[in-house]
Amino acid sequence: MIDFGFDKLALIGAVALVVIGPEKLPRVARTVGTLLGKAQRYVADVKAEVNRSIELEELKKMKTDFEGAARDVHSTVASEFAQTSADLNSAWNADAAAIDNPTSAVAAPLAEPPGYRRPRKNWRLKRTAVPNWYKQKNGIRAKAQSGAARVARFRPPRASA
Questions:
Q1: Measuring CA to CA, how many Å separate 29 from each of 24, 37, 44?
Q2: Could you tell me where the beta strands, DSSP code E, fall in 5-139?
Q3: How far apart are CA 60 and CA 68, in angstroms?
Q4: Where is the composition biased (Basic residues) (predicted)?
Protein backbone atom coordinates (compact mmCIF):
# COMPACT_ATOMS: atom_id res chain seq x y z
CA MET A 1 0.00 0.00 0.00
CA ILE A 2 0.99 3.64 -0.33
CA ASP A 3 3.01 4.86 2.62
CA PHE A 4 1.78 8.20 3.98
CA GLY A 5 3.86 9.94 6.61
CA PHE A 6 2.76 12.83 8.83
CA ASP A 7 4.30 15.44 6.54
CA LYS A 8 2.48 14.06 3.45
CA LEU A 9 -0.87 13.99 5.29
CA ALA A 10 -0.35 17.59 6.45
CA LEU A 11 0.41 18.67 2.86
CA ILE A 12 -2.71 16.88 1.54
CA GLY A 13 -4.82 18.52 4.27
CA ALA A 14 -3.48 21.99 3.44
CA VAL A 15 -4.14 21.50 -0.30
CA ALA A 16 -7.68 20.20 0.49
CA LEU A 17 -8.34 23.22 2.75
CA VAL A 18 -7.33 25.58 -0.03
CA VAL A 19 -9.13 23.74 -2.86
CA ILE A 20 -12.35 22.68 -1.09
CA GLY A 21 -12.65 25.51 1.36
CA PRO A 22 -13.20 25.59 5.10
CA GLU A 23 -17.01 25.27 4.88
CA LYS A 24 -17.19 21.99 2.94
CA LEU A 25 -14.00 20.36 4.32
CA PRO A 26 -15.64 18.62 7.38
CA ARG A 27 -18.42 17.10 5.25
CA VAL A 28 -15.90 15.93 2.59
CA ALA A 29 -13.65 14.47 5.34
CA ARG A 30 -16.63 12.51 6.80
CA THR A 31 -17.55 11.24 3.33
CA VAL A 32 -13.95 10.24 2.59
CA GLY A 33 -13.76 8.51 6.03
CA THR A 34 -16.94 6.51 5.43
CA LEU A 35 -15.77 5.54 1.93
CA LEU A 36 -12.39 4.45 3.30
CA GLY A 37 -14.15 2.44 6.05
CA LYS A 38 -16.36 0.72 3.47
CA ALA A 39 -13.32 0.00 1.30
CA GLN A 40 -11.46 -1.49 4.29
CA ARG A 41 -14.48 -3.66 5.21
CA TYR A 42 -14.78 -4.81 1.60
CA VAL A 43 -11.06 -5.70 1.47
CA ALA A 44 -11.39 -7.54 4.82
CA ASP A 45 -14.42 -9.47 3.51
CA VAL A 46 -12.53 -10.45 0.36
CA LYS A 47 -9.55 -11.60 2.43
CA ALA A 48 -11.82 -13.63 4.72
CA GLU A 49 -13.52 -15.24 1.72
CA VAL A 50 -10.18 -16.14 0.16
CA ASN A 51 -8.98 -17.61 3.48
CA ARG A 52 -12.21 -19.59 3.83
CA SER A 53 -11.86 -21.00 0.32
CA ILE A 54 -8.22 -21.95 0.99
CA GLU A 55 -9.19 -23.63 4.28
CA LEU A 56 -12.07 -25.40 2.54
CA GLU A 57 -9.72 -26.80 -0.09
CA GLU A 58 -7.29 -27.91 2.63
CA LEU A 59 -10.15 -29.59 4.50
CA LYS A 60 -11.27 -31.34 1.32
CA LYS A 61 -7.73 -32.57 0.76
CA MET A 62 -7.48 -33.78 4.38
CA LYS A 63 -10.88 -35.47 4.01
CA THR A 64 -9.74 -37.40 0.94
CA ASP A 65 -6.50 -38.37 2.73
CA PHE A 66 -8.43 -39.61 5.78
CA GLU A 67 -10.91 -41.49 3.62
CA GLY A 68 -8.04 -43.19 1.79
CA ALA A 69 -6.39 -44.10 5.10
CA ALA A 70 -9.70 -45.43 6.43
CA ARG A 71 -10.15 -47.54 3.30
CA ASP A 72 -6.61 -48.91 3.70
CA VAL A 73 -7.23 -49.76 7.36
CA HIS A 74 -10.59 -51.34 6.51
CA SER A 75 -9.07 -53.49 3.77
CA THR A 76 -6.16 -54.51 6.03
CA VAL A 77 -8.47 -55.45 8.89
CA ALA A 78 -10.79 -57.33 6.54
CA SER A 79 -7.90 -59.32 5.02
CA GLU A 80 -6.44 -60.12 8.46
CA PHE A 81 -9.88 -61.16 9.68
CA ALA A 82 -10.39 -63.41 6.67
CA GLN A 83 -6.94 -64.96 7.11
CA THR A 84 -7.53 -65.53 10.86
CA SER A 85 -10.96 -67.07 10.21
CA ALA A 86 -9.45 -69.39 7.62
CA ASP A 87 -6.70 -70.41 10.06
CA LEU A 88 -9.23 -71.00 12.83
CA ASN A 89 -11.50 -73.00 10.54
CA SER A 90 -8.60 -75.17 9.39
CA ALA A 91 -7.50 -75.73 13.00
CA TRP A 92 -11.07 -76.50 13.99
CA ASN A 93 -11.44 -78.98 11.14
CA ALA A 94 -8.12 -80.63 12.06
CA ASP A 95 -9.18 -80.96 15.71
CA ALA A 96 -12.60 -82.29 14.68
CA ALA A 97 -10.88 -84.86 12.44
CA ALA A 98 -8.57 -85.80 15.35
CA ILE A 99 -11.56 -86.33 17.63
CA ASP A 100 -13.25 -88.47 14.97
CA ASN A 101 -10.04 -90.45 14.43
CA PRO A 102 -8.33 -90.78 17.87
CA THR A 103 -5.40 -92.81 16.51
CA SER A 104 -3.98 -89.86 14.62
CA ALA A 105 -0.89 -87.98 15.85
CA VAL A 106 -2.86 -84.82 16.58
CA ALA A 107 -4.78 -86.50 19.41
CA ALA A 108 -1.60 -87.35 21.35
CA PRO A 109 -1.22 -83.97 23.13
CA LEU A 110 -4.79 -84.27 24.42
CA ALA A 111 -4.00 -87.42 26.42
CA GLU A 112 -2.74 -87.07 30.01
CA PRO A 113 0.92 -87.94 30.62
CA PRO A 114 1.60 -91.22 32.43
CA GLY A 115 1.75 -90.91 36.21
CA TYR A 116 -0.37 -87.78 36.26
CA ARG A 117 -3.09 -87.72 38.87
CA ARG A 118 -5.80 -85.14 38.61
CA PRO A 119 -6.16 -83.04 41.75
CA ARG A 120 -9.26 -83.67 43.79
CA LYS A 121 -11.11 -80.40 43.92
CA ASN A 122 -13.73 -79.74 46.52
CA TRP A 123 -15.69 -76.64 45.67
CA ARG A 124 -17.01 -76.34 49.20
CA LEU A 125 -13.57 -75.64 50.63
CA LYS A 126 -12.31 -72.10 50.70
CA ARG A 127 -9.14 -71.61 48.73
CA THR A 128 -6.45 -69.60 50.49
CA ALA A 129 -4.21 -67.00 49.01
CA VAL A 130 -1.10 -69.12 49.73
CA PRO A 131 -0.95 -72.27 47.59
CA ASN A 132 -0.85 -75.64 49.34
CA TRP A 133 2.39 -76.68 47.62
CA TYR A 134 4.10 -73.66 49.18
CA LYS A 135 2.75 -74.53 52.61
CA GLN A 136 3.91 -78.13 52.30
CA LYS A 137 7.35 -77.08 51.08
CA ASN A 138 7.87 -74.65 53.97
CA GLY A 139 6.28 -76.79 56.69
CA ILE A 140 3.25 -74.60 57.26
CA ARG A 141 0.18 -76.42 58.54
CA ALA A 142 -2.42 -76.48 55.80
CA LYS A 143 -5.21 -78.05 57.83
CA ALA A 144 -6.36 -77.09 61.29
CA GLN A 145 -6.61 -79.99 63.72
CA SER A 146 -8.19 -80.05 67.16
CA GLY A 147 -6.12 -80.94 70.22
CA ALA A 148 -7.86 -84.31 70.71
CA ALA A 149 -7.29 -85.25 67.06
CA ARG A 150 -3.61 -84.31 67.38
CA VAL A 151 -3.21 -86.45 70.53
CA ALA A 152 -4.95 -89.37 68.85
CA ARG A 153 -2.77 -88.99 65.80
CA PHE A 154 0.52 -88.98 67.64
CA ARG A 155 -0.40 -91.48 70.43
CA PRO A 156 1.92 -94.47 70.42
CA PRO A 157 0.28 -97.71 69.41
CA ARG A 158 -0.95 -99.97 72.22
CA ALA A 159 1.00 -103.02 72.98
CA SER A 160 -1.01 -106.23 72.87
CA ALA A 161 -0.98 -108.08 76.17
A1: 9, 12, 22
A2: none
A3: 12
A4: 152-161
Residue ranges covered by each domain of the chain: 6-101
Tell whether the torsion through CA atoms of 129, 127, 111 and 101 is positive or negative.
negative
Q: What is the pLDDT of residues 101-134, one digit of tens each?
A: 766 554 455 667 777 777 777 766 666 677 778 8
pLDDT at 107: 46
In sequence order, what are the residues at sequence separation of 6 or more whose Cβ sits closer than 8 angstroms to the Cβ of residue 25?
A: 16, 17
Question: Alpha-carbon distance 38 to 129, whole Å?
Answer: 83
Asked if residues 16 and 8 have their Cβ atoms less than 8 Å apart, the reply is: no
Residue type, 91: A
- Residue 111 DSSP class: S
In angstroms, the CA 62 to CA 68 distance is 10
Dihedral of alpha carbons 21, 24, 26, 32, sign = negative
Answer for the pair 132, 139: CB distance below 8 angstroms, yes or no. no
